[in-house]
């Protein structure tokens, strides 16, 4: 029996890798895409021919209920979100409505239709926020520091409440930063890969950065969507922290990217004091031991390999004159 999976946010980085994984596993994959965002389906490249697209307004409870009644999904992956955190300060209410509203409307729809649909909510390590201990695990207190994280936390708890009160199979992955050639250029890793490729090709000659000593726990998107899928295959729905457990500095990212194109990064990076932010005393870094024990999940791709993939993809895009992230086949 072919399983049906619905994905919100299918045109995003994770949406792409997850669709690819599920199509490979023989799923019928349906992307729920609002009418105004249909032009962004080009981001799926040739993958768009292997999935179905269902046009639906994610802000309408009735429309989502009808979608779930019609499509009768076995699994739902709720990934849609304005994922660039600083933007959430410009539109806190819109961020809350999309992140919390969509999760709540979907959970209510599953409950009202009465199917045994399994639901995955894309939670974030940003929910830990102002951490007072490292590394973080599923028991760590949430102290969100921005509207994005607060909205994610509300959605997370709404998911927990629907599981506890109504017995839904609902869970969430608390994911740390994960990157790929499909990362949007707003994010630091992609900014660096694009700069290394542009400088190599003589298109630009420098990159302004903030604190090179800042550290993060970065992984590969292809590994992290595998964890999402595994969370919906176990007997009991639970939360899982998903990260590498390893900290790398921004300096290491820069060095790796410029090494890939044979350039000395120190000649091209300019530290702009305006971008400098005080670094935190405790770092956001995952303790993924529960995911390893209960899901058998471990990250496979190292940060240096991810950065290399990103730089190669940007070189190819710039050489063919298009930054469109189409037709990139994920590894793993
Ligand atoms: P992404 O590449 O930014 O993709 C976000 C997706 O959400 C896109 O499909 C985007 O559609 C859609 N979206 C954005 N605003 C929307 C709106 N107003 N209405 C409807 N759809 C909207 O993000 P990602 O990296 O794939 O992340 C997937 C999920 O995981 C997100 O919920 C993110 O917050 C969460 N997460 C990501 C990370 C990470 O490091 N990547 C870490 C923790 C949690 P368009 O293509 O039309 O813009």
Question: What tags apply to this protein structure?
Answer:
332 residues; alpha/beta; Rossmann fold; UDP-galactose 4-epimerase, domain 1; binds NADP nicotinamide-adenine-dinucleotide phosphate
Brief sketch in words of this structure:
By secondary structure, this protein is an alpha/beta fold.
Give a verbal description of the structure.
The protein is an alpha/beta fold. The protein has two domains: 4-178 and 219-242, 3-Layer(aba) Sandwich (Rossmann fold), CATH 3.40.50; 181-217 and 246-284 and 301-328, UDP-galactose 4-epimerase, domain 1 (Alpha-Beta Complex), CATH 3.90.25.10. The chain is 37% helix and 15% strand. It is built from nine helices and 13 strands. The longest helix is centred in the N-terminal third of the chain and has 22 residues, at 92-113. The structure holds NADP nicotinamide-adenine-dinucleotide phosphate. Residues 9, 11-15, 34, 37, 40, 43, 58, 79-83, 98, 122, 124, 175, 177-178, 184 line the site of NADP nicotinamide-adenine-dinucleotide phosphate.
